[in-house]
Structure formats: structure tokens, C-alpha cells
Amino acid sequence: MKHAEPKSPVSFIANVARLPQKGLPVVIVADERQRAALATEHELLSVETYRAELLVARWKRNGVKVSGHVEADITQACIVTLDPVSAHIDEPIEALLLPEESKLGREGFEGGGEIVLDADGPDSPETFSGDFIDVGALAEQFFGLAIDPYPRKAGAAIAAAGDDQAEESEFQKKLRSLLGKS
Fold first, then answer.
1. Contact of 80 with 157, CB cutoff 8 Å
2. Whole-number Å distance between alpha carbons of 126 and 108
3. From edge to edge, which strands make up the β-sheet containing 24-29?
């Protein structure tokens, strides 16, 4: 998080140098202005509710683990009809962060060691600098990833141009025979 990012509408800065033994519980409930900013930021018609419950705790020697979930009620425009489509988001949050200067953070890339990535496993740790992390912005990232990129109203379908069963081309016939489908 070294580059200056635009501040999140639900920004919450946690001092990770002074975390309590049991971790720092953080609850973010967006007000009307913050919800409007989230809607604009994520190209939504509206955000009716937004709540993030997080626990910011120490991880290993000098790392930080952020866990919890973000819940929201949103309204998007249907990609077919542009009618409003309501959706509920309940997304788990789990992130590991390491100081830039930590050996664990540098070792994987600079140490020449192998990095084993498990597609279904946890994400590899991100790095941070200084004593502060914007856990609100982190929660917003998980919120953004949970938004359906192609919201569709029930029963809405996209009609392809010339959908009146055009004659199959030679290429399509050959392809169908190769695939063994008739």
C-alpha cells in the first residue's frame, strides 16, 4: 500500500503497531453519504446498507491478519433491461499483510526460493509500510469483488441479432461433426 490510492468512502485506519493481544475489533456501518459514494465508485444504482465486521490481529511475528465479513444490500441495473435488480452481499474477508521490510515478505520473490500457490488456498500475503493499514479500504475491495458483474432481472434474456435459426455454415457443420454432436 505504498502508492497513494484514492481514499475509500469507508476508510478506517488501524494502528497495527499497537494491536491489543486479542486483536482489534472494527465495525464499519456506512452512512448515507458513504453509501452514495460506494454506489458511484462501483457503478451501482444504490447501496441501501453496508456493514463490515473485522478483526485486526497480529499474525506471526510482525504480520497482520484481517478477518471478518462485509454485508450489503445493493441495487444494480439489469444488463438486459436496465431495470433495477436488488442483491444481497455477504462476503467473508480474510487477508494477511506483512511489513515491506519483513524477511517473510521479501524472501519469496528475492530469495530465489520457490513460491507454491494453491488456487483454492489462502491468498499470499500483501505488504504494507508504516504502522497503519486502511482496513476499511480492504473491506471495500472484498465488497467490490462480490458484486455480480452481469446482474440480470429474472426472465430477462438477450436476443442475439438474427436469432431466427440461420442456416448452419460449412465450418459449423464440420465442427459439430468433429465434436460428435448432432
1. yes
2. 12
3. 24-29, 46-59, 63-77, 84-99, 126-128
Contact 12, 24 (CB under 8 A): no
- Tell the burial category of 156 from Cβ atoms under 10 Å away from its Cβ (0-12, 13-18, 19+): middle
Cell of 23: 486483536
Question: Which H or E run includes 177?
Answer: helix 170-179
Long-range contacts of 58-61 (CB under 8 A, 24+ apart): 58/19, 58/23, 59/96, 59/97, 60/104, 61/102
* C-alpha cell belonging to residue 130: 508504516
- Nearest CA among 57, 51, 60 for reference residue 25: 57
Determine the pLDDT at residue 26.
96
Q: Tell me the per-residue pLDDT of 63-76, one tens digit each, with 9 for 90 and over.
A: 899 999 999 999 99
3-state secondary structure of 28: strand
What whole-number distance in Å separates Cα of residue 90 and Cα of residue 50?
A: 10
Q: Which three cell numbers stand for residue 11?
A: 476508510
- What is the Cβ-side half-sphere exposure of residue 117, based on CA atoms within 13 angstroms? 6
The grid cell for 167 is: 442456416
Measured distance CA(114)–CA(107) in Å, rounded? 10
Residue ranges, the chain, pLDDT below 70: 1-6, 102-124, 158-167, 181-182
Write down the pLDDT at residue 13: 93
Residues 135, 72: Cα–Cα separation, whole Å: 17
